[in-house]
Design brief:
Layout lengths: L1 H24 L3 H21 L2 H4 L2 H28 L7 H25 L10 H20 L9 H28 L10 H20 L12 H27 L5 H25 L4 H23 L8 H30 L6 H30 L1 H5 L3
Helix pairs in contact: 1-2, 1-4, 2-6, 4-5, 4-6, 5-7, 6-7, 7-8, 8-9, 8-10, 9-10, 9-12, 10-11, 11-13, 12-13
Length: about 400
């Protein structure tokens, strides 16, 4: 029964994709969106009820998954051609880039899967990232389909569709790398990537998305950005801060503490934080000296960690480093949330007493405090690890 149910989920999903293609051809965009939402429900609910990889024959699973992927590819192609030929529309460059990456990803899937079939194995498609990629792709299709309807044309759907396409591209790249890892790894010596490490990787993966959202309107003045994307930037920053503590908690809770996680966690923090601070510098929320001090501290402490690792020593996080991280996260979230508040104030109550004066000084005050705390933390790391330096000087 489970085998029949598993196949039914996959077949229904492919039928819904086929119906979507027919609706797009007939210009029934609302129905196409409805069928896509139905496929999204089936795609999420099905794996929760049945683990296809455990019950299905590799050959049958390969053909059904291949058909599913080809239909999604055709849907993206149909939407790209429709937008490309639409009069008065800009060329859908982001959609084209996503279509190309999706095609290459599916080619990788075909090549690797055919080789693995000889060993009666299949690629791990029901991982967290695989499911997230499938959800992002369907959501992107829905948003682009809605943008072609008169009701949503020229509205917000296209903005969300582009953002969703960028997220999908990053997820497709990550799953493509996962295909390579699974195919070439040595089973005897490699371990699956833990959930905590995946959370850490997600910060690195989403850092370019933050830049995209922050400068979505191609204007260095962040104050001119759309309110929706200001909210998205704040949500991404909150995710960076929360995931910084979440990955360590998951590693300890699940007994998955590893050397990779210890080295990767601070690296991912530096990537996400420095990208945000550089965005702040471009928009005038921080000055050059503030970002320079932060960069100097982070790079020198990472050099210290490298020297310690070469001697077989792991430098653990110090209390000053935790305070620095907490202050950085608080300042970033505060600035982004207050920018949202400023947008609302200017829109609904532009004459609010003292607000303009307070807001004009707040970002620099917060970033100045971050720079000072970051510098003091760096000094603490060097004074607390003098023995590492004594081996080299």
């Amino acid at each position: 029964m489970r085998l029949i149910a598993g196949r039914a989920f996959l077949i229904v999903r492919m039928l819904l994709f086929t119906a979507t293609l027919a609706c797009l051809y007939l210009n029934r965009n609302v129905w196409a969106s409805a069928f896509l939402l139905g496929s999204l429900f089936v795609g999420v609910w099905g794996p929760l009820k049945v683990d296809h990889e455990d019950i299905e024959q590799p050959a049958a699973l390969f053909w059904m998954k291949l058909g599913d992927k080809l239909l999604v590819n055709l849907l993206f192609l149909a939407l790209f051609l429709r937008l490309f030929w639409a009069p008065g529309r800009d060329a859908p460059i982001i959609l084209w880039a996503g279509l190309m990456i999706l095609t290459f990803r599916n080619v990788f899937y075909l090549i690797f899967s055919v080789s693995l079939l000889k060993e009666h194995r299949v690629l791990p498609l029901n991982t967290f990232w695989g499911k997230a990629t499938n959800v992002a792709l369907i959501v992107t299709l829905v948003l682009y389909t809605l943008d072609t309807t008169p009701l949503f044309h020229g509205g917000e759907a296209i903005h969300f569709a582009r953002i969703s396409m960028v997220i999908s591209i990053l997820l497709m790249i990550s799953t493509g790398i996962g295909y390579l890892y699974f195919y070439y790894r040595d089973e005897a010596s490699r371990k699956p990537i833990s959930l905590a490490t995946q959370v850490t990787f997600s910060r690195i993966l989403l850092a370019p998305v933050f830049v995209w959202v922050f400068f979505y309107d191609s204007d260095l003045v962040y104050q001119n950005n759309h309110l929706i994307f200001k909210i998205m930037a704040a949500l991404l920053a909150i995710f960076f801060v929360v995931s910084d503590g979440l990955d360590g908690y998951l590693a300890r809770k699940r007994g998955e503490v590893s050397q990779l996680g210890k080295y990767l966690d601070p690296y991912s923090d530096k990537i996400s934080n420095m990208i945000i601070f550089l965005c702040f510098l471009a928009s005038g929320y921080a000055t050059v000296w503030m970002v320079a001090v932060i960069f100097f501290r982070e790079s020198t402490v990472e050099t210290l960690r490298t020297l310690a690792a070469a001697s077989g020593v792991t430098i653990d996080a110090r209390r000053s480093g935790k305070w620095k991280t907490a202050l950085q996260g608080t300042a970033v979230i505060a600035i982004l949330v207050l920018e949202i508040a400023d947008t609302l104030v200017q829109r609904y109550n532009p004459g609010l007493p003292y607000w303009s004066q307070i807001w004009s000084y707040t970002p620099h005050a917060l970033m100045g405090a971050v720079a000072v705390m970051t510098l003091l933390s760096g000094i603490d790391y060097f004074t607390g690890n003098r023995k590492v330096l004594e081996q080299y000087f």
